[in-house]
């Protein structure tokens, strides 16, 4: 497969999808496609198929309001797309199970280094009152349990008199003590992956779920929770097929393919959302990103340019281009998304990988007992099965509080 020009073919296919279809061929053509791939035309927002000028517009169709209701449980993680659940579970030792017996590294999927804060790459807020923006962002954070920092825009500098705020009464440590402690902390930080749960009491864990979108599925994807997207990483990888068959036969498939990794946080900690490209996927679109456009004949992102330079040197490019959404909100430090909100989409079927932190639950006693002993109380609960078909808005699981 690596000898096939899959990227070039996929880009040409994307271009072919954008060719205009003769008016009289649109209805029979789209009805035939829908019959072959199982598209439910009764859900499509525009019933007149003549309106869609090409395959790309039909792939990226919208749905009627109300056909994808959101699960009412506020602690639930919703399905981000229509598709089939390929795999899900808990992440142990930084390994994600692709299929039974085949794993890949979370570092390879998301990147092994901690996200930086590069120059912002998002559209700033519209020109409205700053105070209204900050109050709205603060309310979003409060309602959804997300931590935030409120800038000191109205009250001026913090008071520094003893009656209003305690003063610092510390003395300076010895230089040798400070150096030794800094070295120990540096070793500790280096040994812990940046994506690992921060809780020292091990009360939370990382979970993952993989959802495959078939060619007949609704191709737009949505936010599974209310969260803040702080940064984006674009990996300009390969474009292998992500069909269930190849997922069973090609180890590390998702770490080889082109993908867009969105990193941020929700009320329970770390949250990442990764749309993965595939053969004949015309493009991965992120609605709130100005620069990103993947797998296009006219693409010119930083990751693509770096990959081309590496190819010219005869090297394999495994890096990524990173962008920040910090300027979207001075309060939240990222772009706020409500549960169910449309985020972007694929221009053909592909895959979404969610990796998120959630509570493990509490022990029923001090002695956790054997594997067959009592389960933890509360914590994350799955509400899905391998191979299950899901739709946008259905609960994949929830945090039992």
Automatic annotation (TrEMBL):
InterPro entries: PS_Dcarbxylase (IPR003817), PSD-B (IPR033177), PSD_type1_euk (IPR033661)
Modified residues (Pyruvic acid (Ser)): 350
Stretches assigned to the Mitochondrial matrix side: 1-2
MF (Gene Ontology): phosphatidylserine decarboxylase activity
Top enzyme class: lyase
Cofactor binding mode and count: Binds 1 pyruvoyl group covalently per subunit.
Keyword tags: Decarboxylase, Lipid biosynthesis, Lipid metabolism, Lyase, Membrane, Mitochondrion, Mitochondrion inner membrane, Phospholipid biosynthesis, Phospholipid metabolism, Pyruvate, Transmembrane, Transmembrane helix, Zymogen
Function: Catalyzes the formation of phosphatidylethanolamine (PtdEtn) from phosphatidylserine (PtdSer). Plays a central role in phospholipid metabolism and in the interorganelle trafficking of phosphatidylserine.
Subunit structure: Heterodimer of a large membrane-associated beta subunit and a small pyruvoyl-containing alpha subunit.
Protein name: Phosphatidylserine decarboxylase proenzyme 1, mitochondrial
Organism: Lepidopterella palustris CBS 459.81
Taxonomic lineage from the root: Eukaryota, Fungi, Dikarya, Ascomycota, Pezizomycotina
